[in-house]
Amino acid sequence: PHNSAIGPYLALGFLILVAYLFGILAKELGFPALTGNLLAGILFGPAVLGFISPADIHSLEFINTIALSFIALSAGGELKLKSLRENARAITGITLVHTILILGGTLIVMAPFLLFSNIQELSGTRVAWMAAIMLSVVAVAKSPASTIAIINEYRARGPFTDVVLGVTMIKDVIVLLLFAVAMG
User: Which among 23, 31, 82, 132 could disulfide-bond with 36, CB atoms 3.0 to 4.6 Å apart, if both were Cys?
Assistant: First the structure.
């Protein structure tokens, strides 16, 4: 059953056009275009105005898969092995510190909240801890898509950009490993 009055492909076309226009507006206001794109998605998506329904999003899932493939290819194309070797120490240090602080900080904040919520009452302490751990792992994740979009938009180059991209890519691998461990 389809919930949208305009259909998933028309809704997608509308969202692409609106995201583009919001991107232009964001740039005029001094923000990255990605900021406008995200605001358009939030505003016109299912959470606020509902121009695209959850059913539409589900039916367009294959586009998400294709987009993720292009993002991964783009991220791989941006990485330079020489730069990764030169900045390995900085990338490793930043990645470890960030992962530990975010994972630990989120766990410290979320565990008491979840332990004293309905989750604990309905499902038990073990489930509340599992939820806190999963939320902490998700909090560690970074978006290669947004990182690459900002780097490309501002034509950023240099050691700082290489370190940021390296940390983002390494953290994706770490999040996959943490997710597998947490699920176990």
Answer: 23
User: Does the model's pTM come out above 0.70?
Assistant: no
At what angle are helices 159-183 and 144-153 packed, to 10 degrees?
A: 170
- Proportion of the chain in helix, strand, coil states, percent, rounded to 5: 80, 0, 20
Q: What are phi and psi of 153, to 5 degrees?
A: -60, -40
Element spanning 160, H or E: helix 159-183
Is residue 175 a contact partner of residue 103, using CB atoms and an 8 Å limit? no
- For the record, the structure tokens of 182 come out as 């947490």
CA dihedral sign, ordered 140, 41, 51, 59: negative
